[in-house]
Write a structure and sequence with these properties.
Mean pLDDT of chain A: 94
Number of domains of chain A: 1
Oligomer: heterodimer
Order of helices and strands of chain B: EHEEEEEEEEEHEH
CATH class of chain A: Alpha Beta
Number of helices of chain B: 3
Strand content of chain B: 15-25%
Strand order of the largest sheet of chain A: 5-15-14-12-11-8-7-6
Low-confidence stretches of chain B: none
Strand order of the largest sheet of chain B: 1-2-3-4-5-6-7-8-9-11-10
Largest interface: A-B, 34 and 43 residues
Radius of gyration of chain B: 18 Å
Structural class of chain B: alpha/beta
Strand content of chain A: 5-15%
Shape of chain B: globular
Radius of gyration of chain A: 22 Å
Number of domains of chain B: 2
Low-confidence stretches of chain A: none
Structural class of chain A: alpha/beta
Helix content of chain B: 10-25%
Distance between the termini of chain A: 59 Å
Mean pLDDT of chain B: 95
Number of strands of chain A: 16
Shape of chain A: globular
Chain lengths: ~450, ~240
């Protein structure tokens, strides 16, 4: 019989984290807000639950370090006169000028351009320097319409009509007052210092029937030249993707629950949406069920960390991936620099999720001119370019090992599942068996 | 004046003809029989006079910068949405989301406007001679919203700096909407606006315009501008 006086008993229900959360809300009188994205342990199937099966005797590999392996990616071939062509299937997702500093936005644009990739505007309109530094720029049209400007839209290479995002589907964004500086307030037509809450619904359409007309309007406004993307947070992906395809989208973006955000109620980040792995499988099944797989391109986002995640997303059916948080980390997010400023926020390098405060120690998610100086645009652009290049190399090395001369030829058959859940979700045999468990919305034969 | 016949044509064909005429230097275009087509006159970016001789569908004159557009009929949803500048005159009534997210210019509706008129407007003027539906002015940020008739429920909900004026009955104020004192400057603004766009005491649809000093002024109470635990009762409603 243990002596209960000599060890701590901890409730599995009311853990220290839960107790702290309850007491914080009892003090605050509101839900808790923060940035970064879901923090909790991932007890669901992820890309880590899949492994590639490189060539042995049944397949012939390509030379891993040298043979040609195409990464060029074309998006928007369905209706647009000018589909976008990017050199690698890794793109920078929409992050607002406001959530991010001027330097961060320009560094992302310049870094992406350097490797022939794209970047995306965000909630708050286009920054002129963003266009100047981009090779391919995607202009987001969001429910808030902050900073919307037809002249900016017409110089973009694609339009992204955003319905929601993975970190908080069904809810608009937040930009707390510390980041609504003079210049950001002017850009968004808001009072300086307000805790800006973006709307969840578009102001001029509601459902998919109206969205058909909205997409046609965007095409008229851009002379039917550029692709129209539709971006959604991953919820009822199978049905949502079918609806988005039927509204006339050229490209569909599905953002899984691991996606990041500059600020959002914590419960939405932790408890809404479905994982990115499940999202890509449902999205592919949806397009296949319509006979539009390949005709409507698919971009997957949400917690894509490296070329391995990206390669697995491509193999499951994506044409390209978006990265956001990973790109910020490439810019030095959570790096042990200016450590005393992490401490001032009550956190440490590698643990910071305080984007919402505007006190980013490394100058990325801030509007403070002094903090912003800590991010050198040229050095940041170089790191972003290096990261994108490294990720592309990772995809290529996996593709070559699987015998593919084009990264877009990766397929589900190139992988095995490492967990029952992943097998069920992806429709891929569990390693050690030749059996697919379950009949979920995987990539085979879903009607 | 150049003319385009809309009869039996798709929106894309009508717009292509309008663009072709603009490219030829036309500055005054009349579209006959627009047939309630959607997306007519979208993204016109020059000081053009464009008249639709009949009703139009969704998003007419959306994303414009500079034109003077006259619609001799009713409009569908989102007339003039996200306009930067220009003047849009609707002789009849407007569907949901009239002048949604406009950043400048003026939208004048001589009849009624449906739900969410002036939603997210970021500047400019929305003048409605008749009544409006629910949630007009929702999350409006700047500019002026004038409703000469009655409003629906949740009027002026969660606004920032837009100033609203109502000549009739307000069914219900939205979250954080408060009645403010009508000043002499407000009355002068209303008088000059009515003189400019109505030119008399009635609108083109025959609506009688109330006297400027009888209007009520509605602004944001600013309790939703920043998180504050002391305002928990308001937040509970708003969120």
């Amino acid at each position: 019989m243990p002596d209960r006086r000599n060890y701590l008993q901890t409730s599995a229900t009311y853990t220290p984290d839960v107790i702290e959360d309850i007491q914080a809300k009892a003090e605050l009188g509101r839900y808790r807000m923060r940035g970064f994205g879901a923090l909790r342990e991932r007890r669901w199937a992820t890309f880590d639950d899949l492994t590639f099966l490189p060539c042995t005797l049944t397949r012939i590999p390509l030379e891993g370090y040298r043979e040609r392996c195409v990464t060029k990616t074309v998006l928007g071939t369905r209706f647009a006169r000018k589909p976008i062509e990017i050199e690698i299937p890794i793109m920078i997702t929409g992050m607002s000028w406001g959530a991010l500093s001027y330097n961060a936005k320009v560094a992302l644009a310049r870094g992406a351009a350097r490797v022939g990739s794209s970047n995306t505007t965000g909630d708050g309109g286009m920054l002129a320097a963003e266009r100047e530094n981009s090779k391919t720029l995607i202009y987001e049209v969001l429910p808030s319409r902050y900073g919307i400007n037809i002249h900016d839209m017409r110089v973009a290479d694609a339009i992204e009509l955003t319905i929601g995002q993975g970190a908080k589907p069904g809810t608009g964004g937040l930009l707390l007052g510390s980041k609504v500086s003079d210049v950001i307030a002017q850009q968004r037509d808001l009072p300086v210092g307000v805790d800006q809450r973006s709307p969840a619904r578009h102001p001029d359409f509601l459902g998919p029937d109206d969205m058909i007309i909205k997409i046609e309007e965007l095409r008229e406004a851009t002379d039917w030249q550029v692709p129209i993307f539709v971006k959604m947070g991953a919820t009822r992906v199978f049905d949502d993707v079918k609806l988005a395809a039927k509204t006339g989208a050229d490209v569909i973006v599905v953002d899984g629950m691991e996606g990041g955000t500059g600020a959002s109620p914590e419960i939405l980040q932790e408890h809404t949406g479905i994982p990115t792995l499940a999202a890509v499988c449902e999205a592919r099944a949806a397009l296949e069920s319509l006979g539009l797989y390949g005709e409507v391109q698919l971009i997957i986002a949400g917690g894509i960390r490296n070329g391995v995640d990206a390669a697995k997303a491509l193999a499951l059916g994506a044409d390209a991936v978006y990265i956001g948080t990973a790109a910020m980390i490439g810019l030095n997010c959570n790096k042990p620099l200016f450590v005393e400023d992490y401490h001032a926020l009550g956190t440490e390098p590698y643990h910071c999720h305080h984007c919402h405060t505007g006190r980013c120690p490394v100058g990325i998610t801030t509007q403070d001119p002094e903090l912003m100086k800590r991010l050198d645009v040229d050095a940041g652009a170089e790191r972003v370019a290096n990261l994108l290049h490294a990720m592309a190399l990772e995809i290529q090395i996996l593709a070559r090992a699987c015998g593919k001369a084009n990264v877009h030829d990766l397929e589900p058959e190139d992988m095995r599942a490492l967990s029952l859940e992943a097998s069920m979700i992806c429709g891929i045999p569990l390693a050690g068996t030749n059996k697919v468990f379950g009949d979920g919305p995987g990539w085979k034969g879903h009607g | 004046m150049a003319e385009v016949s809309g009869g039996g044509k798709a929106s894309r064909e009508i717009n292509a003809e309008i663009k072709r005429l603009i490219a030829q230097g036309e500055t005054d275009i009349l579209v006959r029989d627009p047939g309630a087509r959607h997306n007519l006159g979208v993204a016109v970016l020059q000081p053009l006079r464009l008249t639709f001789d009949g009703s139009v569908g969704y998003y007419c004159a959306g994303l414009c910068d500079g034109p003077m557009v006259e619609i001799r009929g009713d409009t569908g949803w989102g007339v003039a949405e996200s306009m930067l500048n220009g003047t849009i005159i609707v002789h009849g009534s407007a569907g949901n989301g009239a002048a949604a997210a406009i950043r400048g210019g003026a939208v004048v509706v001589h009849g009624d406007a449906a739900a969410r008129a002036g939603v997210s407007m970021k500047g400019g003027l929305l003048l409605i001679a008749g009544n409006c539906g629910y949630m007009a002015g929702f999350m409006a940020q700047k500019g002026a919203l004038i409703v000469c008739g009655d409003t629906g429920e949740a009027f002026a909900d969660s606004m920032y700096e837009t100033v609203c004026y109502v000549g009739g009955r307000i069914a219900e104020l939205g979250n954080d909407a408060v009645v403010a004192e009508l000043t002499a400057e407000d009355v002068a603004f209303l008088k000059s606006t009515f003189s400019r766009y109505f030119g008399g005491e009635t609108s083109k649809s025959g609506r009688r315009i109330p006297r400027p000093h009888d209007f009520k002024k509605i602004v944001a109470g600013r309790k939703l501008w920043n998180f504050d635990k002391r305002e928990w009762a308001t937040w509970k409603e708003a969120l």
